[in-house]
Design brief:
This is Adenine deaminase. The chain is α/β, with parallel strands linked by helices and about 325 residues long. Helix content is about 50%, strand content about 15%. It has an eight-stranded parallel beta sheet. The site of hypoxanthine has 10 residues, from loops.
Amino acid sequence: ADLKSFIEDMPKAELHLHIEGTLEPELLFALAQRNNVKLAYDSVDALRAAYDFSDLQSFLDLYYAGAAVLQTEQDFYEMTAAYIARSRADNVRHSEIFFDPQTHTERGIGIDVVFAGIARALREARDTHGFSSGMIMSFLRHLSEDDAFATLEAALPLRETYSDLWIGIGLDSAERGNPPEKFARVFARCRELGFHLVAHAGEEGPPQYVVDALDVLHVERIDHGVRSEEDPALMQRLAQQRTPLTVCPLSNLKLCVVDDMRKHNLARLLHAGLAVTVNSDDPAYFGGYMNANFLAVAEALRLSRTELVMLARNGFEASFLPAAEKQRLL
Ligand code: HPA
Ligand code: ZN
């Protein structure tokens, strides 16, 4: 088989995906019209043309503006259903999905509306197609820890209702200047509550943020983590503990974390023994879903088929699925 078919045929698990980052311009415009939300762009093409980012913040500004079109349970359902359709087409069998309630509750949308719409699509996909998934509620790190606590308190009454899906807690948004320590107390509480914990670290922020995500927040996986390479002791530790990194190649290119895919350190991280996985992050904004991310690194870094299989298998191994489920799905 050619490289593209080989990648298409591999069963994949996705561990770093922001559901709000799957809102394609076409759906974004349709929802804006349906909900009478005024957009700063007058066409799908004009919006897509604005997806030219210089760093994380330049992306976040558009991402949060785009999310304003999401108003009803049906809107969250349609966005999630569209993501699942794309993922199934890419032979993704399991996905652990981030969602940012604060982006929506800030606009007066009920947190129950957010949970309900996403969960309805995930349950339907599970019951109809055997598509496996989990939900990871993420705190916005540019907001205060008190705000994160308030979000947790608002969400906890829903825990029983979504016990089949809600598996974890994450931390995303603007990394620089918002270190893990800012969320130490709320993560300690989430840990007591028995949630799986993850955090974005070492995307734009320094390797010390990766160390602190591990030592202060006690996360089980690092989202991105590519800057870990700057700290040899950290690299040794990540390899030894097999702490997964959820790497997002097209995201790193679009947000100028790397200026050329041929310079991406994914292969070096893998060769150093780290549990590297490949993920799409915000595929509607960064130019591709899972297969596009695999193909981009396979070509730019001349990865072997053995390496591609390792990366895909790491996705299942690094997932929060029970061991028997990992085996069954891959
Ligand atoms: N980094 C931080 N916050 C985010 C990202 C990301 O890549 N995507 C969506 N929110
Ligand atoms: Zn991310």
